[in-house]
Design goal:
The chain is mostly helical and 99 residues long. Helix content is 82%, strand content 0%. The termini are far apart.
Length: 99
């Protein structure tokens, strides 16, 4: 019994004269629930689109920062290498002039 999907109630479920009114009330509530679910699904889709847009913008900013960092590291590498070269030339010059 629990393996069967739920079914929509009909007039057989309410044999007395109140059954018709109860069935109408259930159907109205079911319609209201469906409307609310549709509204919530639309809101979820809108939030999902907003999150996707934010992720895209964030990824673009990260890519810009990454390229800036790569450029700065490359410039720093050339600066350090040139500094070491100047120090080495200075030591060689000092050693050769005193020899």
């Amino acid at each position: 019994m629990s393996d069967q999907p739920p079914r929509t109630p009909d007039m057989k479920d309410f044999p007395d004269h109140w059954g018709f009114y109860l069935l109408q009330a259930i159907n109205r509530l079911d319609d209201k629930i469906d409307q609310k679910v549709d509204v919530l699904e639309a809101k979820i889709q809108k939030l999902d689109d907003t999150i996707d847009l934010s992720n895209h913008q964030l990824n673009e900013k990260i890519d810009v920062l990454r390229s800036d960092m790569d450029r700065k590291l490359t410039n720093a590498q050339y600066w350090y290498m040139s500094t070491l070269f100047v120090i080495l030339v200075g030591f060689v010059t000092v050693i050769l002039t005193h020899a």
